[in-house]
From TrEMBL:
Gene3D superfamilies: Hypothetical protein af1432. This is Deoxyguanosinetriphosphate triphosphohydrolase-like protein. SMART domains: HDc (SM00471). It comes from Endobacterium cereale. The lineage of its organism: Bacteria, Pseudomonadati, Pseudomonadota, Alphaproteobacteria, Hyphomicrobiales. One of its GO terms (molecular function) is dGTPase activity. One of its GO terms (biological process) is dGTP catabolic process. It comes from the Bacteria. Keywords: Hydrolase. PROSITE patterns: HD (PS51831). Residues 75-219 form the HD domain. It holds the Pfam family HD. NCBIfam families: dGTP_triPase (TIGR01353), PRK01286.1-1 (NF002326), PRK01286.1-3 (NF002328).
Length: 405
């Protein structure tokens, strides 16, 4: 793999011509005066960090429930790692680091307690009312549910940050208006009626690097946490040729290295190789496209920031290893079943007695809401819960709560 740092602005001091420009942002839904000390994307990033939703990530599951130990990743530590990799990629490509970081920091806001288990359970409960999608929930949080400012609900983020949040994994619909991966979640469609995020195009390169940084981060740290938990062993990593080569490299250089350091040396090499692979692919595709603006990135026929064919196969193999050895392990599945029961029990309880919800989620006119509106209100409440809050809420309402360990 060869990376030419002299062309396309990579590694040089100037901003790339295809970078998103905070000084020519498409603006905010509710106009605001600019800042004397920060760019618009810096302001977005700072607003995201100061939210309640960001703080809640520290007690939301990534893979392992918090009671399993203090050293496992949570949604918060995962998010910070994603942001670090996104900034590194953005700096290498000379695009806007603050926008890339902001998209990385906000990308998991909509996740429920108990990780994807909680999302699947809440989606099942909300199926009659439009279902649940964590990406759509992230948009609801930053445009409606956060209540911090006198002049508007949400954070009033720039168009570019909202576009990155919604489309960081690629276009959501065809130019003919059909959903690419099934129906587009209704909350996203509703928001686009008042603030069009152009769902048929790619997002900025900044959002794209945040998305691929997510893959790099969890492919690496789920292996690290898997080794710490004992669900994975170093021998199992040899099922993936890429990881096996990393292990041989580390062993040849440090033949007597203790296991914990050995594992870390593998992980750091994995991140480096994946980051450099993305940069190399981006450089090649940008060289072909020759974009003259951020709009050219959005109008391209393919993503610029992605893995090569070879690294994409490695990514597939790593995910297969993680699913077979960790995500689908009988012990994890047993815990997941208990977590799903907690979410489903709470949903039914709050639908039957919404006054049991705390803070502003219980409002005096709740009984007058339609069933669908009440269900979405309950869904917002449940999605905002941390793991610990959900367990305590269940213990308060039920005689028996599943043991999540």
């Amino acid at each position: 793999m060869t990376i030419d740092t002299r062309s396309l602005g990579f590694g040089s001091g100037e901003r790339a011509i295809f970078a998103a420009d905070p000084w020519t942002s498409r603006g905010r839904l509710f106009p605001e005066a600019g800042s004397l000390t920060r760019s618009e994307f810096q302001r977005d990033r700072d607003r995201i960090v100061h939210t309640t939703a960001f703080r809640r990530l520290k007690h939301k599951t990534q893979v392992f429930i918090g009671v399993d130990g203090d050293h496992y990743r949570t949604r918060l530590t995962h998010t910070i790692e994603v942001a670090q990799i996104a900034r590194a990629l953005a700096r290498a490509m000379k695009i806007d680091e603050d926008l890339a970081e902001g998209v990385a920091l906000v990308h998991d806001f909509g996740h429920t307690p108990f990780g994807h288990t909680g999302e699947d359970a809440l989606d099942e409960m909300l199926k009659p009312y439009g279902g649940f999608d964590h990406n759509a929930q992230s948009l609801r949080i930053v445009t409606k549910l956060e209540r911090r400012y006198a002049d508007f609900d949400g954070l009033n983020l720039t168009w570019e940050s909202l576009e990155g949040l919604v489309k960081h994994n690629g276009p959501m619909m065809t130019k003919a208006g059909e959903g690419i991966k099934g129906p587009v979640p209704q909350p996203i469609l509703d928001y686009c009626e008042i603030h069009d995020l152009e769902l048929a195009s790619f997002a900025s390169l900044e959002a794209q690097v945040a998305a691929i940084a997510d893959d790099i981060a969890y492919n690496t740290h789920d292996i690290d946490d898997g080794l710490r938990s004992g669900f994975l062993t170093l021998d199992m990593l040899e099922e993936v040729p890429f990881l096996a080569s990393m292990m041989r490299e580390v062993h040849d250089r440090y033949p007597t290295l203790e296991p914990s350091r050995f594992a870390h040396e593998i992980m750091r090499r994995q991140i480096t190789h994946m980051v450099e692979d993305v940069i190399s692919v981006a450089q090649e595709r940008l060289g072909t496209l020759k974009p003259q603006s951020a709009a050219d990135i959005r109008g391209a026929d393919l993503a610029m920031a992605t893995f090569s064919t070879e690294m994409a196969e490695t990514d597939r193999q790593i995910k297969k290893l993680l699913f077979s050895r960790i995500y689908r392990h009988p012990d994890i599945m047993r815990i997941r079943a208990g977590a799903a029961d907690i979410v489903c029990d709470l949903f039914r309880a709050y639908m039957a007695a919404p006054q049991e919800m705390q803070s502003h989620y219980w409002v005096s006119h709740m009984p007058d809401l339609s069933e669908a509106a009440r269900a979405r209100h309950v869904g917002d409440y449940l999605a905002g819960m941390t793991d610990t809050y959900a367990v305590k809420a269940h213990q308060r309402l039920f005689d028996r709560t599943p043991e999540l360990r």
